[in-house]
Amino acid sequence: MVRKRIVSGKRIIASVCVVLAATLVVTGVGGYFAFLRSPANTPGEACGSPRPAVVAAGASITRGTLGGDWIGSLRSRPDLVGYEFVNAGINGNTSADLLARIDTDVVACRPVAVTILVGTNDVRDGVPLERYRGNLAAITARIQDRTGARIALMSLPPMGEDLNAEINRRLADYNRAIEETAANAGVDYLPVHERMAEIVAQRENRTPYDFSFLLALSAATQHYAFGRRWDDIAASGGRELLIDHIHLSDRGAAVITELAADWLSRTPEA
């Protein structure tokens, strides 16, 4: 009897170990593809292409390995095949981080156009508004001084889909700073937040901000290990545009794709 119990206990332990190992492998796949894998066409890979470069500078929403890849969608559009789309998004970047690498990752590409989408991490980290405004102005001025590129500053997507939540009230101040910086610098402003807010406002039940790394890892694992669409992952959490309260579903990414494509299709005089 004792021997049988020992054997049974060993089998249970072995089964638990197998489950744990499988879980680690599956989450490892999601974590690698979302957080460690480089996006397509980084500055180091794509700068120097004979085609005119469009550099998209920002953080994880630009990088697009966790959530919808709006730069990849731009790259696949037949009307934009003449451009080399450079992905200069780095996970976790703040406006200060982007400013520190603006010469190597943006200016060095000699771009004809630059989009800037940065600030979500500034809001999360509590970076003072005036410091953020100064960083964004310095980023814009640096590109203007050293290139002849057209520049578009993008407003920040909502954080969670409850637009009345405290974090989105704070976010509104940063978005005003983006619009004012664009006006002061004489560059274009793309209303990402405004378009997304129109979509979210149509929903009766809107989920408040509740981002966590574990939620982001879960979304990545569902997508990369089990093949679930970003839109389905968002919907399973009661959301429309955001998979984890920050990063984009495919529908969320499509909002940015359309705004950027429309901007690129305009002549500078338009």
TrEMBL record:
SUPFAM superfamilies: SGNH hydrolase. The keyword Transmembrane applies. It holds the Pfam family Lipase_GDSL_2. The chain crosses the membrane at residues 12-35. Keywords: Membrane, Transmembrane, Transmembrane helix. The keyword DNA damage does not apply. GO terms for molecular function: phosphatidylcholine lysophospholipase activity. It comes from the Bacteria. InterPro entries: Ester_Hydrolysis_Enzymes, SGNH_hydro, SGNH_hydro_sf. Residues 57-252 form the SGNH hydrolase-type esterase domain. Signal peptide: none annotated. This is Lysophospholipase L1. It comes from Saccharopolyspora kobensis. The lineage of its organism: Bacteria, Bacillati, Actinomycetota, Actinomycetes, Pseudonocardiales.
